[in-house]
Structure formats: C-alpha cells, structure tokens
Design goal:
The chain has a two-stranded antiparallel ribbon. Helix content is 79%, strand content 2%. α4 runs antiparallel to α11 (189-222). It has helices at residues 3-20, 23-27, 31-59, 72-86, 98-109, 114-124, 129-136, 140-154, 158-167, 175-187, 189-222, 226-260; strands at residues 88-89, 95-96. With 261 residues, it is mainly α. The protein is globular and about 55 Å long.
Amino acid sequence: MHPNITKIQQNIEPLRQQIINHRVYSAISEVEDLQVFMEHHIYAVWDFMSLLKALQINLTCTTLPWFPVGDAVTRQLINEIVAGEESDADQDGNVKSHFELYLDAMVQSGANVEPINNFLTSLQKGRDFDMAFELACVPKPARAFVNSTFETINSGKAHLQAASFTFGREDLIPNMFFSMVNDLNCKQPDKVSIFKYYLERHIEVDGDQHSHLALSMTEKLCEKDDNFWAEAEETARQALQKRIDLWDAAYAEIVGNKILA
C-alpha cells in the first residue's frame, strides 16, 4: 500500500473511531428507532451514488462520440464499482441499485420515505437544492451532509471525489449494529429482513471488494502530487465530520422520541 494512503488512514482514525463508537448505535433497540436512523441515513446513501457517478463522469467517457479518457486502469476501477453499486441484486434476485434496495428496506420497516422521494422529485423537476430541501422538509444535518458532498462533486477534482468516496463513506458500521439488526430481524423479519440483506451486501461488496478498488483509484489519482495528497486528507476529514454530525442528529431524534413515549 502507498505510504500516503497509510498516512491518511492513520490521521483520520480518531474521526473513524468516533463514528464506529457513536452512541446512536446503542440507542437503537426497536424498529421505530431503526426507522429514524434510516430516515437520516438515506440521504448519505443517495449522495454516495451521486459521488460515484461524478467519478465516472470525470474518469471515463460519458459523452458522444466516444474517446478513450484518462488512465485505463482507473477507468476499469470506477466502472467496476459503478456496476456493483448501480446494478446489484436484491434478496429476490431482481436487479436494483443499492439506493433502491435501501428504499425498499425503509418501506418494509415502516420508515417515512416521503421526504426523500419528494426531495428527488423536486430535483428532477429542476428545482435547486435549497428549494428541494425546503419542499421535502429534509433535516438540517442531512442538508449539510449533502451540501458538503456536492461541494466536493462540484469542485470537479477527481482526487477529492475519490478521497471522499474512499475514506469518508460506507465502511463505518460497527459489529454491534449488525448484531442489533440480526436481533430485530429474529423478532420482526417482516420489518427488517430487507435491511438485514442490505447490510450483508454492504459487507460483501462495499466494505471489501469496492474498498480495495477505491484505495487503488485514489492512489492512481494522487500519485506523486503532495498537494493532491494533502487535499485528499482534508476532504476525508470533512466527510467524516459530516457523518458524525448526521449521526448526532439521528441520535437526538431517537432519544427525543423515547422521552416523549
């Protein structure tokens, strides 16, 4: 592994530990708690897909006529990740993106999917992000999370997009969370089985194969440029901090609901 990859991993480890050990996980004990968590997390799942497509646009040819773009190995890495994330299979073998699979899990659990659906519908109708956030009543920490991601996307800098994708994203769920989901699934499989399957696919694909591909992609994009490596680390830090803020918001709502119950 490139020494700068190791350096970034070491430097961001305190932030990663804050996420892995976040109190939101221990607060989830009922399906209703899981619903709240999912209603926040879905925005991170969605903008993860947007970040992925930004990388594909930057690193491959997505316009006509076609021409070979960039480094062939980097093209291979991003295209392989896109295929796995955008065209995976659900528990019944139907082809779906991981975002669509997560939405299915939300619907099964009884979580409220109206805000995320309204948000995406507003964007599809050409409204800007601020208006779409307002119309869909998106939680403020989720707005901040998405805005931060799209600042990275709109920078047009592939090495920053790769850093956020690689170091700040979806491999940060602790074992205790999987255990909790398994327990809930044993009690209420009609509410949790799809989410359990999503997490299993997450471990198999996102947390293993894709993480190795993403590390290789980030290394190829930064290579010998010290400024790129420094910017990559700062972007990773920002992405992790926004994840902490998002988890803080989910925790506050879960605990607040328990107090009111």
